[in-house]
Amino acid sequence: MISENAKYWIWLTQCLGYNNPKLNKLHELYDNIVKFVEGGEHEWRLSGVLSANDLEKLGKQPLSVSDEIISSCRSLNYSIVTLEDETYPEKLRNIYSPPAVLYMWGNTDIFDNRLVIGIVGTRTASSYGTRNAYQFGYAFAKFGVATVSGGALGVDCAGHRGSLAADGVTICVRGCGINNPYLQGNSAMRAEITRKGVVISEYPPDTEPLPFHFPARNRIIAGLCDGLLIIESGEKSGSLITADLALEMGKEVFALLGNNSPRNKGSNTRIKEGSAIPVTDFMDILAEFDNIYVTEKDIDFDGLSLADINAIPVKPSKYANKEWPPKGITKEKEPLASPEEVPIKEEKPKHRENVELTELQKKVYYYLSDEPVHIDKIASDLKIPVFKVLSALTYLEINGLVQSGRGRKFQLK
Hints:
By secondary structure, the protein is of the alpha/beta class. It contains 18 helices and 12 strands. The strands form 2 sheets. It has a 9-stranded mixed beta sheet with strand order 1-2-6-5-4-3-7-8-9, with helices on both faces. The chain has a 3-stranded antiparallel beta sheet with strand order 10-12-11.
């Protein structure tokens, strides 16, 4: 589907830029953008929106610049939706500087009247990060919840693939044109997304992935979701930009509890500051939304295909394809011992001594053992409200004293 007035809006984005709040101002002033465009310089000046530099740009760019873009979209079977169209996502209309034009590949009728959760995080995700992103995406899909992410390596890709594994709906927002070969390794995933979901961009089909496109792209992810989940985010991660935008828009922001790795510094800091709600599984998120009926649903995460998870591409480490050990460091080889000679040593986690904890944190810490126990049982046995137990567990897990497992269970680390 390509709307009748698409060529006028495309022309305006080519003249004034994509992420420009003046475009939305023009939409508020004119019921039909044709009146503005065809009114010429006289009408452009009367609008009171544009600067002298803007007027010069409009005067230099012919309207025919839109024809090639529209022709390309038709040949690729992409839809073009503008601010004037009824199919434009309602969730984006009220954000600051909504995209005037959206190029879409897939199902264009999935944005509204459903719960959407954003999944964002580092491109260099650990196995813990990719596994959790995949499982969250899978579980959300099982509950009929759509996910949205940026289609990048690592966490984004894992969240999309988890939704697809459960035959769910997921939305991929690209920081380049939909048809651009950037991240070619994910092209099959993007094609699969379009079967039920959609790949979208505010940039024409072949637009290159320029650095400033991605922060602008993040406002669309934040706008489309009802809640945003951060999984493994460094101190200066782009996912934190998305989280800040979501907070400004009044969305709920969640962060997966992680260890003290630099990968988790950003998300853990958000938890400690109180700007992100700590979570350990998908039920913690679904329980925050009144418009979805949440019950403990038995999802067999252990039965998920590990091959699918392990196939998720991430950026290689700095040691990839390099000699190891590095030159100048020798690594002595030791003879392999036979199985009979290798002692079997089973070390169970123990409570650490001389750890500074509050009284509440001590009660929870010394209650736990190496056997996983559900948070509700902890609260019941200790006669402490669940939210206080969760606060203590959050502190203990961030400091590497306990670890969480599936089903909201905790044990010593």
